[in-house]
User: Which sequence fits this backbone?
C-alpha cells in the first residue's frame, strides 16, 4: 500500500465523518451538540500503525457474551485472532462476528490510552472482508488509524458492547480517534 495514498484516504475519511457528525440527522450528536461541533480529535496518521496480518481463525467458534453500556448482553462468535507487535511488544487481539454469515470482523479493544487520551470504555475496529484484505485475500489490513469511538461516547442513548478483558492491551495505541469534547 502506498503511504501517500493511504494518508490522503484517511484524511478524506475524517473530513467525511466530521461532516456526517455535524450535518446528518442520524448523527450520534444531539441537535444542540451539532450546533457546537467543529470536528473530532485524532492522533496524526502514522503508517506504522497499519498492519497487514493473517487472521488465525479459531477451529471452534466459541460464543462470547459481552455486556453493553445499558446492561444488556450481546453474543459474539470468537472468530479468530490477530498477532502483531508494537515497539517489540507482542500483542494479540480477538476478532468477533455476530453470525457465521457476517462478512465483517469486529475488534473492540482497550489500551493504555483508554480513559486518558481516548474513550474510557475502549475503541472499535471494523474490518470489511472485501475492503480490508490484501490483493490476494490472504491477509487482513488491521489499521489502528481507523480506530473509532463507539456512539455511546457521544450520547447515552446508544448501547455499546464493553471490551472483553481478552482485548485489553497493556501498551498505548496512539492512533485513531481521541476523547470526544465539544
Assistant:
Amino acid at each position: 500500500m502506498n503511504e501517500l495514498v493511504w494518508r490522503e484516504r484517511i484524511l478524506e475519511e475524517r473530513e467525511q465523518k466530521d461532516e456526517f457528525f455535524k450535518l446528518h440527522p442520524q448523527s450520534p450528536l444531539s441537535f444542540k451538540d451539532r450546533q457546537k461541533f467543529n470536528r473530532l480529535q485524532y492522533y496524526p496518521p502514522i503508517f506504522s500503525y497499519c498492519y497487514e496480518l493473517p487472521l488465525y481463525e479459531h477451529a471452534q467458534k466459541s460464543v462470547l457474551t459481552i455486556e453493553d453500556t445499558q446492561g444488556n448482553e450481546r453474543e459474539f462468535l470468537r472468530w479468530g485472532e490477530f498477532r502483531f507487535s508494537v515497539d517489540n511488544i507482542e500483542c494479540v487481539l480477538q476478532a468477533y462476528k455476530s453470525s457465521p454469515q457476517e462478512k465483517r470482523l469486529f475488534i473492540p479493544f482497550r489500551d493504555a490510552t483508554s480513559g486518558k487520551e481516548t474513550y474510557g470504555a475502549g475503541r472499535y475496529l471494523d474490518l470489511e472482508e472485501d475492503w480490508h484484505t490484501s490483493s490476494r485475500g490472504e491477509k487482513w489490513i488491521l489499521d489502528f488509524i481507523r480506530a473509532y469511538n463507539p456512539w455511546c461516547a457521544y450520547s447515552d442513548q446508544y448501547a455499546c458492547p464493553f471490551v472483553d478483558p481478552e482485548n485489553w492491551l497493556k501498551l498505548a495505541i496512539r492512533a485513531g480517534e481521541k476523547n470526544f469534547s465539544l
User: Anything to note?
Assistant: Residues 15 and 126 are 19 Å apart (CA to CA). The mean pLDDT is 93.
